Amino acid sequence: MYLELIKLVSLPVIALGAIVGADVSALSGAFAAPTFEQVGQYGVGEDSAAEIIASDGQILAYSNSDKGSIDFVSINDPSNPTSITSVDVGGEPTSVAIHNGYAIAAINTSESFTNPSGYVAVIDLWDYQVVKEIVLAGQPDAVAISPNGKFAAVAIENERDEDLNDGLIPQYPAGNVAIINLKGDVTYADVRGLAGIAPSDPEPEFVDINDKGEIVVTLQENNHLVVLDSSGNVISHFSAGKVDLYDIDDTKDGYYMPVGSRQGVRREPDAVAWIDDNHFATANEGDYKLKRRGEHERGGSRGFTIFHKNGTIVYDSGNTFENTLAKAGYWNDKRAEKKGVEPESVAVGTYDGVPMLFVGAERANAVGVYNISDLSSPVMTQILPTGKAPEGLLALENQGLFITSNEKDAVNSISIFKF
Q1: pTM for this entry
Q2: How far apart are CA 376 and CA 304, in angstroms?
Q3: Which of 333, 302, 330, 344 is nearest to 386 (CA)?
Q4: Cβ(332)–Cβ(343) under 8 Å?
Q5: In 210-298, at which residue ranges do the beta strands (DSSP E only) sit?
Q6: Strands 186-189 and 82-88, how do they pair?
Q7: CA separation (Å) from 88 to 25, 30, 68, 71, 83?
Q8: Coil, strand, or helix at residue 9?
Q9: What are the E-state strand segments in 157-203?
């Protein structure tokens, strides 16, 4: 152990981006599987941000909250992505999805935390006009479209005011999940009374839909997961649970030295993605401080988890996701005392017959690629360097592409990888 630490002390520390000159050859050399290679990038400029992305394989859309728009890029030639147009949506776009010639964007128009509002904009990809606006009773966050295209789900977060009462919840109004059919009719799934933390004030963060039309929802601050049917009925719900972390670096000192530990760390998942109709993966970023006996005050377990939809944990990465990135040079010492590399995003895709899980580390500017042929024992096959602060991940299996949107990068804002 101490020999390993001596070797690691010599690693340079990054503030943003991969360490310049960091030696990852030993890591990549250990992976015999085919790999991804970056073939293109797109820059949005200093006055914009690429946050959440969606694509039909030819057109890529990204939410741009800095400009209040949904912006579109052609990726017909992945090595040379080009701008198509920008659509002003009259608010803060929080998410976007694409299906069958239309982009569906969630727009936050809230006047205040206590008076949240928003709508869904339907944009025709033929002429890039907003053809429908669907009013929502609250502030939207993530949006997903069912694989069969028959409905969309929107996480109505109604986010808390972090400056009020030290950001503690409950803070009303409570969040819920909006389910929108093809006619634009909206029903709301009530997810109150389920979580162990602030059950009266759920804050849905992210949604995804499987082939059966089941919706998985993360309640990040509540540290809870809910599975709904397409009508909004609760199929299952359970705590995201806690993790004991050992051999991590939780001290801001200019070095990477994994000698710290934290017990009872709430997972507090952000993004979630179905792997199949029974399993999903979560990125356990963390976003809440809460003093409770037997728990660490700060949530975010620095890794990812694979759950069965009945709540059974199939796999948890523990300290391995962060430590593998850090040892390869992807480490941000400024975040050591907080949530480390902050896994924020996940995506799933199958390439050359191999099911793969992608886990984005917002504070390490990297994505871990895992072979998940055995869900109980994922194998990291590659680390992909991205632009600054990867926020959105997109697996385009049919095109053999994997794409990240990097929120804090004006030049490498969208990174395009080819398998």
Answers
A1: 0.93
A2: 12
A3: 330
A4: no
A5: 215-219, 224-228, 234-239, 242-248, 260-266, 272-274, 279-283
A6: unpaired
A7: 44, 47, 6, 9, 15
A8: helix
A9: 176-181, 186-189
